[in-house]
Design a protein that fits this description.
Number of strands: 10
Helix content: 40-55%
Low-confidence stretches: 11-17
Shape: globular
Number of domains: 2
Largest sheet: 4 strands, mixed
Structural class: alpha+beta
Strand content: 15-25%
């Protein structure tokens, strides 16, 4: 009798563990038979394999977790460039597609991925629109129609601005989305440190505490320190003869012009 109750206790613990937060990734990939799929995430300059599963007749399943916070991951075929990306979280996620076009697979079951996909679809529609404008611009250039080229350039620039604004609006209007930091990271080189900081401050606490947002906060602070109107920080670099020269050693009563150029510039 004691053994029986011990067995029930163990079974209850196992049931509690299996019913806790976890992810299930199910795949239905046409053309994938005896194919090993890897679930990976980027870590600095390397890839970490989170999970793996062999597909038979197109089907595979991975189960694990819990996932602390939704994060962008890659589903890739071992020793191949075939892959697709999606947000992994504690939910049942289904990936449906074809092996030879895995990048275009349909992904359902991830709330965060749905949010991100909505933005991507809007950007793609805008990109298609302005790709046609760009094609018209190339024709105008070839035909020497400078007036038309100038008008089309303005349209292309307007399209780029619209695309950027669309992404900013996504971050601003989705403060609780774990996709927002990834979108913001792609915009930081087009924004001031102050603007980046304002978007971060509006994020929900759980999102703001992610590692990526913490990195963006540090970047924003550094950018704010060198914004227009701020005192330039001192630094030291070698002159053409190899002698160290600090910025402040050259600051005086006259205007100082700094010209930053790369070693490969002529």
């Amino acid at each position: 009798m004691k053994k029986f109750f011990s067995f029930l206790a163990i079974a209850a613990v196992l049931a509690a563990c299996s019913s806790g937060p976890h992810y299930v990734v199910s795949g239905n990939i046409e053309g994938a038979d005896s194919v090993l799929f890897l679930l990976q995430k980027r870590d600095a300059c390397s890839m970490i394999t989170i999970d793996s599963a062999m597909a038979y007749k197109g089907s595979f399943k991975m189960k694990g977790g819990p996932v602390g916070k939704p994060e962008m991951v890659l589903l890739s075929v071992k020793d191949s460039r075939m892959r697709t990306q999606f947000y992994l979280e504690n939910s049942e996620i289904t990936i449906t597609g074809k092996l030879d076009s895995l990048y275009g697979a349909s992904i359902t079951g991830s709330k965060t991925h749905d949010e991100y996909s909505g933005l991507v679809n809007s950007i793609n529609a805008l990109n298609d629109k302005y790709t046609e404008v760009y094609n018209q611009y190339q024709i105008a250039e070839q035909e020497g129609d400078t007036a038309l080229s100038a008008r089309l350039v303005k349209q292309i620039e307007a399209g780029q601005q619209e695309m950027t604004q669309m992404q900013k609006d996504f971050v601003r209007n989705n403060p609780a989305s774990f996709a927002a930091p990834q979108v913001l990271a792609g915009l930081t080189y087009e924004m001031s440190g102050t603007e980046i900081e304002s978007l971060i401050n509006a994020m929900d606490t759980a999102v703001a505490n992610t590692a990526l947002v913490k990195e963006l906060k540090e970047r924003a602070l550094k950018m704010k320190a060198v914004e227009v109107g701020q005192k330039a920080p001192d630094f030291t670099l070698n002159d053409p003869e190899g002698n160290p020269v600090s910025l402040y050693s050259k600051v005086g009563t006259k205007v100082l012009l700094l010209d930053f150029w790369a070693a490969w510039c002529g």
